[in-house]
TrEMBL record:
The keyword Cell inner membrane does not apply. It comes from Natrinema salaciae. One of its GO terms (molecular function) is hydrolase activity. The chain crosses the membrane at residues 7-27, 39-56, 68-86, 98-126, 170-188. The keyword Hydrolase applies. This is LexA-binding, inner membrane-associated putative hydrolase. Keywords: Hydrolase, Membrane, Transmembrane, Transmembrane helix. The lineage of its organism: Archaea, Methanobacteriati, Methanobacteriota, Stenosarchaea group, Halobacteria.
Amino acid sequence: MAGFDGHLKVAIVVGALFTAYTLPKLIAHGVLMTLEHRILYLVLAFGGVVVFGVLLDIDVWSSIPRRLFGKGILAVATVAPLYFLITEPARLYGIGSLAATILSIGSVSTEVIGAVTLLVLGLGIAKTIGFGLDELTDHRGLIHSKEFVIGCGLIAFLGLWQWGELPTLAAIPVAVAVTLGGIVHLSVDAVS
């Protein structure tokens, strides 16, 4: 079975070939007119192949993608209360007021209570997501299916289309890149 390095190397090569093939065609057809669109396309298309080329092993509890995902969720859960405390204290005030009322705490700042409540909820959600991945997936189960890979490509297209920063005709190859990354992963698994 190929490990993280094997999946990553193949995904980088396929991602480079895919973007080298599609970028000039999109430029020639007038789809990517600005330098910003070209750079955004390169990042999204190449990144789509590479990220999805290794991401499918998120269903293995000891894999590098799974460990990074867990660290990312914990980072977001930890930083979000501080972010809201600085940028939107009114949101934390509402959460804190509710928690202070429920817990009958009146001497502590409601913003602080809101931040602590959000932190505890965020860490609880992060832990639940980890358990959910363990319970809902098993290695080479749903996440390692053609249907999941195609669904991710479709979601990528719909997300880019809704976002609107990239022309629709450029969003299609990015969705193909995401799907291609998943196919690369499944192919490497099949031959190893």
